[in-house]
Amino acid sequence: MGQDAFMESFSSTVGVFQYKIYLLLLGTCSGLKVVVPSHTVHGIRGQALYLPVHYGFHTPASDIQIIWLFERRHTMPKYVLGSVNKSVVPDLEYQQKFTMRPPNASLLINPLQSTDEGNYIVKVNIQGNGTLSVSQKIQVTVDDPVTKPVVQIQPSSGAVEYVGNVTLTCLVDGGTRLAYQWLKNGRPVHTSSTISFSPQNNVLHIAPVTKEDIGNYSCLVKNAVSEMESDIIMPTIYYGPYGLRVNSDRGLKVGEVFTVDIGEAILFDCSADSYPPNTYSWIQRTDNTTYVIKHGPRLKVVSEKVARKTTDYVCCAYNNVTGRQDETRFTVIITSVGHEDALEDFGIYEFIAFPEAPAVPRMPSRSVPASAGTSGQDLPSTIYEVIQHIPAQQQDPLE
């Protein structure tokens, strides 16, 4: 069949076919089978798109006719390309865009433009003892690939825990039909009492911030043809102090009491979790008075230079950005070991704690309670007294 004959035959049947083309058939009819790998194909604007079609039949055929139609939303299908056997009949409007190599029914669209988005319908007719016809529909979407997103953070100077808020905004220069997802340490971020998102999900808002919000945040942007993730950004959150504690390099520690042999020098280290790092002050309590003896996280006590055997100390940590303060108290007891009057130290010692007298001044404390063994806000301060119990002498001379 020549091109003129084909066009005449096509013109007489295309009107009826246009009304039936909306029905997506099963793809088989009396031994004719037409298969498309997917009923939705995602293409990239400016690139070529290949729509593969496979068909097969088991009856003798004198002619094989292939027709491609294109329909946009709310429009009638429009003829773009056809063939009979190996003769191709293109629509003159689209002859430079669509390519087919019969008897292969696959269609090549090059280049793909946004206006090419819609449904592509392929119909295969087999002429033999009778005519077998099967059609399939492929939906084509056209998108621009996503460019690498950039995350902006406000305020850039950081926010104070329980006081300030943080907003992360994901910006993308290129891409269509974008979907945004926020990640923290590589895992999706979900809505909570302090976390909310904009309607498009491109803005993440944390109000108020807490220490738990510290982490590596990134924005993942996707569409049907690509996805890109931003660089990691870490919000600056000021917090603390938390978990204030005192450790020593030697001596025996029981609760809040450090026991040191006379002649030893003991180094105390005060630490707490905080950002920015805390400033530390060491306070000594003597005769119901307190005074600062040193600044910094470490304090060295030389037992030979301590006039009293029992001395109370306080380590105070202060964060100058959050305005929060915490303190922990402890007692140092210097014992005489190995001296001539060692029998004087013989006995059972008991550490007795009792509330401080109201007249004794206290350092202010605005922090949350410290860890076990430390004092917190509104907790009464204590001092310690050592009571020695001398066991009664045994009556048995053998003892």
How would you sum up this structure in a few lines?
Helices cover 5% and strands 47% of the residues.
Describe it for me?
- The protein is mainly beta and 399 residues long.
- Helices cover 5% and strands 47% of the residues.
- The strands form 8 sheets. A 6-stranded mixed beta sheet has the order 3-12-11-6-7-8, covered by helices on one side.
- The longest helix has 18 residues, at 3-20.
- The termini are far apart.
- 26% of the residues are buried.
- Mean pLDDT is 80; it is low at 1-28, 338-349 and 353-399.
Write the SSE topology:
Elements: H1 3-20, E1 28-29, E2 32-35, E3 40-44, E4 49-51, E5 54-56, E6 63-71, E7 78-84, E8 87-90, E9 98-99, E10 107-109, E11 118-127, E12 131-143, E13 150-154, E14 159-160, E15 166-171, E16 179-184, E17 187-188, E18 195-197, E19 203-206, E20 217-222, E21 227-229, E22 237-248, E23 252-254, E24 257-261, E25 265-275, E26 279-286, E27 289-295, E28 298-302, E29 310-318, E30 325-335, E31 348-355, E32 382-389
Parallel strand pairs: 3-12, 14-22, 24-30
Antiparallel strand pairs: 1-2, 2-5, 4-10, 6-7, 6-11, 7-8, 9-10, 11-12, 13-15, 15-19, 16-17, 16-20, 18-19, 20-21, 22-25, 23-24, 25-28, 26-27, 26-29, 29-30, 31-32
